[in-house]
């Protein structure tokens, strides 16, 4: 009987480890991958239209990588740069100004060119043909060298109920498994009586 209980508690412990530790890491680790990047603006040639077909049943992050000659303020929201996304029916599904995310990185030590990442928004359940444009205002300044459109998948977030449930299963499994090794105390009244003289 005890080996059945031990097996049951071991299974609870394994299920708890899967739900509490493995599941959140797998879900967070899957996603956040880059789908592709396209040059959408270049100084001298101007804006370009990017057309692509997306067949992704999840959210797609629309962002950009900017190359500039001079540093930009950290909290700048680039209202002068607006990303416009249209679907196959020419409906505007996203129109957002680029927002800088993070500090600049030098492209190489030999040049003063700085790289910035910027976010525009999220496409929900991107399926079908899409057209991406960028609107560049006249007062953007001469420091902007180029803009690359960057599309990527959004990292999924784990179900918040699963991790606590996993920890509870682990605790019950460990305690129950250890209790199956505990010996019962013998009841002195259960011993057979001794016969004969004392």
Order of helices and strands: HEEEEEEEEEEH
Counted by DSSP, the helix tally is 2
Q: Given the C-alpha coordinates, what overall shape results? A: elongated
Question: Which whole number gives the mean pLDDT?
Answer: 79
Into which percent range does the helicity of residues fall? 10-25%
List the uncertain runs. Answer: none
Structural class: alpha+beta
The radius of gyration is 31 Å
Q: Biggest sheet: strands, sense, closure?
A: 10 strands, antiparallel
What is the terminal separation in angstroms?
Answer: 39 Å
β-strand amount: 35-45%
- Please give the number of β-strands: 10
Give the SSE map:
Blueprint: H1 2-29, E1 34-42, E2 46-47, E3 50-55, E4 60-68, E5 77-87, E6 92-100, E7 105-106, E8 114-123, E9 127-136, E10 144-153, H2 162-179
Antiparallel strand pairs: 1-2, 1-10, 3-9, 4-8, 4-10, 5-6, 5-9, 6-8, 7-8
Helix pairs in contact: 1-2
Overview of the structural elements:
Strand 7 and strand 8 (114-123) form a beta hairpin. The chain has helices at 2-29, 162-179; strands at 34-42, 46-47, 50-55, 60-68, 77-87, 92-100, 105-106, 114-123, 127-136, 144-153. It contains two helices and ten strands; from the N terminus they run H-E-E-E-E-E-E-E-E-E-E-H. It has 198 residues and is of the alpha+beta class. Strands 1, 2, 3, 4, 5, 6, 7, 8, 9 and 10 form a ten-stranded antiparallel β-sheet that branches. The mean pLDDT is 79. It is elongated.
């Amino acid at each position: 009987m005890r080996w059945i209980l031990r097996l049951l508690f071991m299974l609870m412990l394994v299920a708890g480890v899967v739900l509490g530790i493995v599941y959140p890491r797998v879900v967070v680790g899957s996603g956040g991958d880059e789908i592709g990047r396209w040059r959408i603006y270049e100084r001298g040639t101007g804006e370009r239209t990017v057309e692509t077909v997306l067949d992704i049943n999840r959210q797609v992050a629309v962002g950009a990588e900017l190359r500039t000659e001079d540093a930009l303020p950290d909290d700048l929201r680039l209202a002068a740069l607006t990303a416009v996304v249209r679907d196959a029916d020419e409906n505007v599904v996203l129109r957002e100004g680029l927002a800088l995310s993070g500090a600049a990185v030098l492209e190489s030590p030999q040049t003063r060119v700085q790289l910035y990442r910027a976010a525009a928004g999220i496409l929900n359940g991107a399926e079908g043909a899409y057209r991406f444009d960028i609107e560049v205002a006249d007062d953007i300044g001469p420091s902007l060298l180029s803009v690359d459109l960057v599309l990527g998948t959004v990292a999924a977030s784990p179900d918040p109920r699963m991790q606590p449930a996993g920890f509870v299963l682990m605790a019950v499994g460990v305690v129950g498994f250890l209790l199956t090794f505990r010996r019962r105390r013998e009841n002195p009244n259960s011993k057979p009586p001794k016969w004969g003289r004392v």
